[in-house]
Structures
1.
Amino acid sequence: MFSVVKRKEPTKDFSTVFVRVKTWWGMFAVFCLATLFNPVVSLLSLMVLCFFGLKEYFSMIKKTRKVDRRLFLWAYLAIPLQFYWIFIGWYGMFIVFIPVYVFLFLPLPRLIGKGTSGFLRSVSSTQWGLMLMVFGLSHLGYYQIASPEYGANLVLFLVILTQVNDIVHYFLSMYGGKRKVIPSANSSITWEGFIGATFVTTVVSYLIYPYLTPLDLTFGILSGVLISFSGFFGSLTISVLRRDLLIGNKKFDLLKESYLTRVDSLTYTAPVFFHVIRYYFDFM
């Protein structure tokens, strides 16, 4: 399909969508293996996913000093602990570990190092990276723990819809998108793409929810809307974040190769979908 589109539009740059599709299919294959074999495979793969996402995020922060690198090390150590809470099924600790305990004690390396210059920027930027790249994505691992019977299929359902939403939004914005949401941050995010992707994602959700989820008709349809909206805000947030960290200009043109662009939507769709389903249904 992409080859046909490329021949019809030889002047357009499809490299971003090619990379994203390959990445999504790789993630889809991992979750399929996790469904067929063991949830531990999923947890280990997600740990790697969080590590590389956080690593790239830290590489985007300018003017890091020795005390900042010590702060980053503490942040990396939070990844195995977060997934350990998932592995033992301790939901209470899983849900508060990063936003409460890690946030409270993360400034310690800066305090010990007696560094005051840039304290707020380095600590807050590290905390925000942990929220997106670790806390948000780690929810993908808790689906199977919260619901051994349906969890793996719910993850597949979520990944498929998030992928569909991303790809449709990209193509519609490229072909017919005129009203850009935030032109200075990402020219490929348009209102036309958002509306079209929401419609297509909702239709796909309606078609596949009976096969992958125990949801009823209402939530089968609303899931598509929910995932589309949250994925849109995830992409928008990461785009603005990259621009704020001066990624995307001519000197640091990493947008096409950026790892963050491949998981941006999941940082929002994974936790939002998880908590909505957990609140309304007993099987979670």
Note: The radius of gyration is 19 Å.
2.
Amino acid sequence: MNSALIPNLDLRQENVALPLRIDNPNTPAVSGRHTHSVVILDNRELDRQCLAQCMAAQKADLQILAFGSIEEWKQKSDEYPPLSAILLNVGGKKIDEPAVSEQIRKLSSEFASTPLIVLADSDDFGQIVRALEYGAKGFIPASVSVSVCMELIALSVAGGIFVPASALFAMRHLLDSSNSTARPLSGIFTDRQVEVVEALRRGKANKIIAYELNLRESTVKVHVRNIMKKVKATNRTEVVFKLNDLFLSGSSAASSLC
């Protein structure tokens, strides 16, 4: 956006908001001005440009780029500073929509050393888990402020993984309800597997589970594989997600696996 496009702009008027300055993706970066860049991917041009302008106003030393696809960025990637993070704005789309899930998987695989962060309108617990399962390093709900969004991106760049507080509350609810729903699961898992299930849901590593249950780590791995088979999961993250579904829905979900 260029102020020259706005006719008869009277700078003396009160309450006039001038357009924020943002680096145009079609213009090469100025050498020495920015050390790193963040790419916003969103096929909605107005949305991505507005977000990019707001983010650029928050971080002067970080070049904010906005593109409709990663292919567009690749065509000009040599003109910009090293890439620090990718912010994929899915808006109101569901994470498990085939096009969205495939995009997350592809980006996280191709840019393995660069954190992929999902920005979405929803903070649904299931959607967050799926985004992380597909390879995202963070999930930011659109309800946060621009300044908070920038801090969360910085967290991901530093190696952290962010999820909304609502997800933690949902997990706490599931954990608090575990005592009342553990018995129906005894029809699926052995007593020892139930103990491993509880540990998996709390995010404990195999070594910790082995220590706490006085088992060999190899034995824990066997239990985990058997649990994966019983809940029809293909990886550890999916195991946790499906186990949480079982605990949330109780015996009806458990009986459906039998």
Note: Residues 1-31, 251-256 have pLDDT under 50 and may be disordered.
3.
Amino acid sequence: MYLLYNGQTILEEELLLPISNRAFQYNDGFFETIILKEGKIRFWPQHLERIREAADALGIEMPAELFSDQFSKTLLQLAEQNKYGSLARVKLKVWRAGAGLYTPQTDKAEWLVTVQEAQKPLTNPIQVGICQTSRTIPSPFSSFKGVNSPVYVLASREKASRGLDDLILLDPAGNLAELTFSNLFWIKDQMLFTPALATGCLNGILRRKLLQLVSQNNWDVQEGLFKPDALKEAQVVFGGNVTGLRMIETLDGEIIGTQPLVLESIMNELGF
């Protein structure tokens, strides 16, 4: 596999990182997962927005090239070098350079891009439960990927042990927050609902795009704090991330949301 490491294309076996690497030592960084479909980057403006937000929150100085028009072309070229077809998953990893202890020696960034083949997303309804072993951790870092990963690792272990497709995470106060793989949405009385960022949920790329879409189309939307019982009254409940949307069919064995056709129009609007 070809990688892009600090702007240089190298083979995977050529990658060498020191033991003092701050991503390894302190989780001092973040990552961004990007979908390439048919030679185009899906939702690139939203990705750039979240990359800037993550870097600002961590105080990491990003290289200008990552925000240049050329960088998006470089990602496509890397996918071509790895001979991936019409659908690929790109992962951009960014961490603070240098060694040191908790006090950094520099705020400059180091970064790595990997590309893997992406599978066509599944669309069948999923069975979920309420997570019992982990809750979100609302903070200035919870809206982007990286720092809070152990929350999702623990929840995913529970998901596997319970034989479910996914779990809904609650915030510390017991409010709905998100799923392990995506943001959470539901529709009731022609209004779109989603948990507020104050719950510690990821400020997902699909979440950004969907809220932008509803604003442009003058739909009613409510971001807020909701208890799990709110889902029982919804016409449709679904999870969404950059790969697509999945309807939630049951919650802890109870059927919820019985109008899946609503999702088809949303997916068409989003370009899936």
Note: The radius of gyration is 19 Å.
